């Protein structure tokens, strides 16, 4: 009994002392808490802003060119990689970025991933274009389900009953959300179709990322560099085939600096999300990152509904909670399973979540 009281009093003293309690590295509890809060807020700000900015660019009625918008964002990412390399050489203490020289062999090895990557970000943007921000979380919610299906079909990995039950909740939320969107008359079957394709590509992207990581020495920024260069090249024939070049030629705001500024800003946020995702995982954990991403998706949906002055039914909100709750539960179940399994490295979850640009994850 005395020991229990002693422990409680020690914990209370640490809580009250706050700023005086330090970890082995000499960092105070308050400083650590403030840093984590700042990183989470930064992740939320970058991620939510990026989604709304992309929705603004893709919803432009004067320019129906989603492939060009995505191509331009990839080009901005490549340019920022070059800039970061330059800053890293000039200010190595302030900027840490790997030196990358373009190698044709490495580019060819990354190419299969790049094909999946352009499918992921293109279908992702098309889903956002047709369903809007409010329904975006539900429309793009099946990536977890595809993870399970592809893990079994491609990697021959089985999934526990608890994880399958979580997938069942996600599927239920998805179908309920589609039903409720149809009831209100705002359902876009094209958006749902592109959302399903985007979810499948997100899962394939994770699998191919693991396969090509050795080609870039396991460095996520090198992978992002080669991936986006390949994507820029692959997008060019697609832009021509789908007639977007003609639409660009007749676009009235082609010489408008404001339009190009917004386009560039979209690319900057696309690049920044990869950095803040890694930062959040570094200062918290992969599980906390996923919980934060789920909470952010919920806040993003609420902001979109309020901003558009929409009125949603209880069942519509229930579908969102089912998707977000099922996704969070699945992450928790998988993290527990990885901790119990001696054959798996706990860092694998972090590597899976730290994908280039995070353009296809539910958290975005």
Automatic annotation (TrEMBL):
Stretches the record annotates as Disordered: 338-364
Protein name, UniProt field: GDP-fucose transporter 1
Family: Belongs to the TPT transporter family. SLC35E subfamily.
Membrane topology annotation: Multi-pass membrane protein
Annotated keywords: Membrane, Transmembrane, Transmembrane helix
GO cellular component: membrane
Localization, UniProt: Membrane
Annotated transmembrane regions: 33-53, 65-84, 110-139, 159-178, 190-208, 228-245, 257-277
Organism placement in taxonomy: Eukaryota, Metazoa, Chordata, Craniata, Vertebrata
UniProt function note: Putative transporter.
InterPro entries found in the cross-reference section: EmrE-like, Sugar_P_trans_dom, TPT_transporter
Amino acid composition bias (Basic and acidic residues), ranges on this chain: 338-356
Residue stretches making up the Sugar phosphate transporter domain: 35-306
Superkingdom, taxonomy of origin: Eukaryota
């Amino acid at each position: 009994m005395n020991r229990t009281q002693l422990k409680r009093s020690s914990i209370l003293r640490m809580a009250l002392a706050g700023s005086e309690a330090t970890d082995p590295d000499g960092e105070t509890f308050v400083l650590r808490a403030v840093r984590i809060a700042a990183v989470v807020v930064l992740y939320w700000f970058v991620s939510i802003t990026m989604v709304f900015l992309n929705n603004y660019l893709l919803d432009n009625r004067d320019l129906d060119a989603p492939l060009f918008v995505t191509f331009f964002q990839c080009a901005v990412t490549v340019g920022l990689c070059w800039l970061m390399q330059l800053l890293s050489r000039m200010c190595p203490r302030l900027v840490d970025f790997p030196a990358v020289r373009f190698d044709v062999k490495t580019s060819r090895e990354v190419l299969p991933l790049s094909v999946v990557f352009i499918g992921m970000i293109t279908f992702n943007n098309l889903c956002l274009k047709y369903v809007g921000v409010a329904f975006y979380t539900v429309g793009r919610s099946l990536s977890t389900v595809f993870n399970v299906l592809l893990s079994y079909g491609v990697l021959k990995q089985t999934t526990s009953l608890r994880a399958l039950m979580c997938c069942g909740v996600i599927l239920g939320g998805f179908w309920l959300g589609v039903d409720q969107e149809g009831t209100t008359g705002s359902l876009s079957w094209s958006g749902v179709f592109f959302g399903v394709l985007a979810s499948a590509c997100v899962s394939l992207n994770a699998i191919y990322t693991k396969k090509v990581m050795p080609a870039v020495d396991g460095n996520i920024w090198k992978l992002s560099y080669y991936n986006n260069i390949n994507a820029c090249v692959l997008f060019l024939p697609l832009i021509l085939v789908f007639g977007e070049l003609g639409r660009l030629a007749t676009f009235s705001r082609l010489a408008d600096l404001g339009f190009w500024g917004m386009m560039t800003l979209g690319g900057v946020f696309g690049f920044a999300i990869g950095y803040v995702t890694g930062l959040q995982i570094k200062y918290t954990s992969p599980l906390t990152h996923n919980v934060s991403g789920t909470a952010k998706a919920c806040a993003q949906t609420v902001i979109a509904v309020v901003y558009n002055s929409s009125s949603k039914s209880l069942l519509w909100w229930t579908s969102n909670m089912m998707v977000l709750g099922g996704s969070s539960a699945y992450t928790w179940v998988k993290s527990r399973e990885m901790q119990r399994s001696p054959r798996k490295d706990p860092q694998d979850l972090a590597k899976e979540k730290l994908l280039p640009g995070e353009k296809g994850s539910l958290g975005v």
